[in-house]
Amino acid sequence: MSKKNTKYIFVTGGVTSSLGKGIVSASLGLLLKSRGFNVTIQKLDPYINIDPGTLNPYEHGECYVTEDGAETDLDLGHYERYLDAPTSQNNNVTTGKIYQTVIEKERKGDFLGKTVQVIPHITNEIKRRIKILSKQNYDIIITEIGGTVGDIESLPYIETVRQLKWELGEKNSMVIHLTLLPYLASSGELKTKPSQHSVRQLMESGIMADVLVCRTEHKIPKDQRAKLAQFCNVPLENVIECKDMETIYEVPMYLQKQNFDDVVLKELDLKSEKDADLKDWKSFLKKFQNPKKTVEIALVGKYVSLQDSYISIAEAFKHAGADLETEVKVRWVYSGDVTEENIKDTLKGVNGILVAPGFGDRGIEGKVLTAKYARENKIPMLGICLGMQIMTIEFARNVLGHTKANSMEFDTATPDPVISIMEEQKNVIDKGGTMRLGAWKCALKNGSRLNEIYGSKNISERHRHRYEFNNDYLQEFEKNGFLATGTNPETGLVEALELPGHPFYVGVQYHPEYKSTVATPHPLFRAFIKACETSK
Ligand code: GLN
């Protein structure tokens, strides 16, 4: 295997959090990929959790699951959606993981009696985690450092960047610093001072930013750009404007217009014969921004007050919607508020319903009512993970007459545990990283709706659950028309249920949303939206 000279790009953030480092990193990744480079993007998170798997979605938004079963930061979803390439365990590292590894080594005596310290032991481990990706033969690794420069928690990462920049030598690495230019309405001005300060803060840590990307609500006037370049020690063309856009999918083009990719390639001494070809991306965007039809889909879940909790689902709607030239409007419905009395009004006029994934018993009965409403009123419905389990409970109660049917997650004493805990989960005590995670095979029944949708019999989808359809009830379900059309070929675990005769009533134990990208919209979302288009 040829050993490539991998180049490293570090993306830091200043002034405030939530500036969109993830989107800028993903956009840059896309531009560099389109210039012919093999790129991956990694996120380093400064918090102490081992991964975001145990975090409440309100804390950090959705937990994104990779093919190899890592529970990761939602930015990895952006990386995959932009690059159309899978990420892995190695693409998301937290301070918790770093310390865990170092402490385990210490316990084994690997440090031979040395005092274990942040420098060099923690920084070496961070370095190892960054460099590990180069074994996969990437030309360029983009590493996004979570948090904001100056945070106590980020210090070891920033120090590692300083060391690496020096070790790797000129032109082998670079730092892109993302800042905010606040707009003062009273004086009608964009202010550069906070950016100057955050660049200075980076310098105090021994790092010179090579490129400044400035988040701004307004165009940056020429003189302000010059001022930024001068105060931050970068060439004028290395000051890149990142104006607020209507959609995150416009960002790559906006950056490309300012030759962002050329600036980066020059800093890394890389040459490309290819111009960035964003033809397909542009055609997606055109369709996305000029839809011919509209559907409204109710997303029924319990974390709806923070829409980032369902970001992969919302983006999957956009990808598949654009493909069909259909705008998908989402009506966010908090399942805890849904009652028998208000359900008609709550769901009035929607063309489809998606019952979302989730954990715990809050809002469950509202979801069961929703599934009943969709089944009886022939409204297209897609249930994802917990959503499929809800469809199972509803069918058992209202069609099979097991009025107390439930999932063992919510009622361990139910006489009809139609959703039961998976055998291998029974003795699991630790909550973190112990669910059935990542990609598993699923065999689709010949002639089923899903078989037609996927155009294949054998598929693989990503998972994140502890409970499963209880196969003791399978015959009874199938006899009454709710068919298990997708199963795990080795274990028989039910992966998908569908109700023939209904316009679209499909529940899946897996999470199709994790695999939807701009370049490859997901067939299940596409089919669901198509069914919504024809529903009244
Ligand atoms: N709580 C359910 C389970 O663990 C569903 C999980 C989910 O929706 N991701 O099986």
TrEMBL record:
GO terms for biological process: 'de novo' CTP biosynthetic process; pyrimidine nucleobase biosynthetic process. Pfam families: CTP_synth_N (PF06418), GATase (PF00117). L-glutamine binds at Y58, G358, L386, G387, M388, Q389, E409, R466. UTP binds at S17, K191, T192, K193, P194, S195, Q196, K227. PANTHER family: CTP SYNTHASE (PTHR11550), CTP SYNTHASE-RELATED (PTHR11550:SF0). Catalyzes the ATP-dependent amination of UTP to CTP with either L-glutamine or ammonia as the source of nitrogen. Regulates intracellular CTP levels through interactions with the four ribonucleotide triphosphates. NCBIfam families: PRK05380.1 (NF003792), PyrG (TIGR00337). Belongs to the CTP synthase family. This is CTP synthase. It comes from Chryseobacterium bernardetii. The gene is pyrG.
